[in-house]
Design brief:
This protein is α+β, with helices and mostly antiparallel strands and 455 residues long. 48% of the residues lie in helices and 13% in strands. It is built from 17 helices and 15 strands. The strands form 5 sheets. Strands 1-2-3-9-6-4 form a 6-stranded mixed β-sheet, with helices on both faces. Strands 5-14-10 form a 3-stranded antiparallel β-sheet. Strands 7-8 form a two-stranded antiparallel ribbon. Helix 7 crosses helix 11 and helix 11 crosses helix 14. The chain is globular. Its cofactor is heme. Pfam families: p450 (PF00067). It comes from Mesorhizobium marinum. This is Cytochrome P450.
Amino acid sequence: MGVYHVDAWRTLPLLARIARDPISATRALHAAHGPFVRIRVPFPTKSGSRQVSLIADSDLYRTVMSDGNLWVNVQITWGGIPNHASNRLSLGMTRLRGERHEHYRKMFVAPLKRPVVAAMSPEMARVAAAEMAKWPRGVPVDLQHAITVMTTKLAVALLFGSDFERALPITDLITRQFKAFRILPGRHYLRWVWNAPRQERAIMEWAAEKRGNRDAHDLLSVLVNNPDLDGLPPSTEIICGIICFLYAAAYDTCLNGITWTLLLLTQHPEIMRALTAEIEGALDGELPTMDRVGQLLLLDRVIREGMRLMPPVPLQMRRAGWTTTLGGEAVEHGERTLISSHLICRDPGVYDEPDSFKPDRWRAVRPSPFQYPVFGAGGHMCPGVTFGLQMVKIALSTILSSGRIELARAMPVDYRTAVTMQPVGKVDVVLRDRTAKLTYPRASGGLARLVALPG
C-alpha cells in the first residue's frame, strides 16, 4: 500500500482544517492522497513523537484494533486537567488497559446480553410511547431536542433502574460534559471544567446510596457493589469515569443514530413509506417490543445503512505503546493514528455507491466489524451493541408508527464533530396524521455534502 507523506511546513494549515471540520478535511486528504497518510508535526506530542498517521483502510484498522495493548486508545478531543475532577470524569472504558479493562468489560457484559435486553424491551417501548405521546401534531418540533428527551429517559430507565429523580440531574451534567468536548477547547469546555467537581460530588453521593443495594438492572449498583481487580472497592475515578462513559455511550450514540436515520428517511420518501408499512403491519396497534420489531428486515437494514453513512463516532484515535510497524511503515513509540470510521464505512470496494442511502444493499453485503466500525472492533468492540440496536429500533418504530414525519421546510442540516457527529442548530420536523399528504421538503448544507440525496 502506498503511503503519502506530508512535509512539516504544510502541516499547520492541515491541522487547522482538521480542527475546524475533521470530516471534510480527512475526506479531502484521503481522496487526494489515498487511505494512508503520514504527517510530520512541527511540535512534539505529549509522548514526544512528531509523526501522526491518518488511515481510512479496513486492513490497517484491523492491524490497529487487533492489539489493544500496543495501540492505546487516545481521546480525540481535549481531555480533562491532570489531578482534577475533569480528568477523573473522563476515564471511561476505552482508557482502561489489559486486565483492568477485561475486569470491567466482563462486569457489564452480562447485564447487556440479548436475553436481558429482550426482557427490557417492554419497558423501552412504554417509555418511548409515553414520550411520543407528548409530540404535537401539525406544528414544528425541534427534532434533536425531542429525541434527546426520549433517549435520556430510555437510558435512565434501562441502565439505572428507572431512578429518574436521582439520575436526571446527573445525566444532564454528563450530557453537558460530552457537548463541551472539542478538538480545541472553548467556552463550553471551560464552563464544564469549572462545574466538574460538582458533577463528581453528585455521582459519588448517588453511588453511596447504591452501596449494599444490589440491583442487576442498575449499572451503577453493579459497579459500586463489586470489587476492583485487587479486591478493593472501586475508586472515585473508576466510578465517575465509567458511569459517565456508560451513560454517554448509550445516550449519545443512540441519539445520533436515531436522529440521522430519521433525517435520511425524510429525504427518501419511498423507503420511508415501505418502512412505515412494515412497522405498522408488525405492530397492529401494539407497542414495539423486541419480539415484534426484532425480526423486521427493512427496519434492520435502514438502521444499519443510516449508521454506515453517519456513524455516531466517525473518528477514532490510537497511540503506539512501543515501536512497531503499520502497513510496512516504521512507527515510533507514542505516534498517534487518526482513524476515519466515516470513510472505512464508505469503502467502494465493499459498498456500491458508498455515498448513497441504499438499505437494500444489506440483503447481500456482509462486512466484518473492521469494514463496518460503527461499534468499534476487536477487544474494545462496544459490549452494548444489542442494547443500542434495540433502543434505536424501538424508538424509530414508536416514532414512525405514530404518524408521518417530514422536515418543516427546506433547510440546511449541518453537523458538528467532536467525540460524536451530531446535527448542529435547530432542525424542525412536523408529525402529521397518517392520511396527510406530505411534500417532503429538501435538506441542504452539511448533510447534502456528505450524502448523495435524491433530486
